[in-house]
Hints:
Elements: H1 2-17, E1 19-22, E2 25-33, E3 41-50, E4 56-62, E5 66-77, E6 80-85, E7 89-91, E8 96-99, E9 105-111, E10 120-127, E11 131-140, H2 149-152, H3 156-163
Parallel strand pairs: 2-11
Antiparallel strand pairs: 1-2, 2-3, 3-8, 3-9, 4-7, 4-10, 5-6, 5-9, 10-11
Helix pairs in contact: 1-3
This protein binds copper (II) ion.
Amino acid sequence: MKIKSLLAATALVMGLAGIAQAGDITVSNAWSRASMGMARAGVAFMTLKNSGKVDDKLISASADISKKVELHTHLMDNGIMRMRQVESIDVPAGAVTQLKPGGLHVMFIGLKAPLKKGESFPLTLNFEKSGAIKTVVNVHAGGAMKMDHSKMKMDGSKMKKMNMN
Ligand SMILES: [Cu+2]
């Protein structure tokens, strides 16, 4: 019973988020938060999987929704969480790299329009070895994403509920 509901939830996630692939890299579950009010910045999170035998890295990203797209991480600086731009995001051979709240993310600076819940937009990810991968980012509700997404994936019932929003 438990396995069944987990599988159903996984299928649901794949159906909504889509899977994009090039070379040994698979991009899945790309999502963003609805932007608040006049916010001019947005973020995207996703799962990057390298099923090959060679290390790869995400070196840039591009999208039409903002003036600039950067790769960022979060760092603790004197007890304050700050964002910092990074040159690249490692996706080691045989490993999974999670872009998630409080950690690595794709940052959209100078949004041309607010990100609205239920909408989606294309994002191109450029990998050093595997080249460009186009994925679709689904915009979720702003408040629903305070929870740790990686933990939520383990719980099928919660995931289902979240997608019904
Ligand atoms: Cu950022």
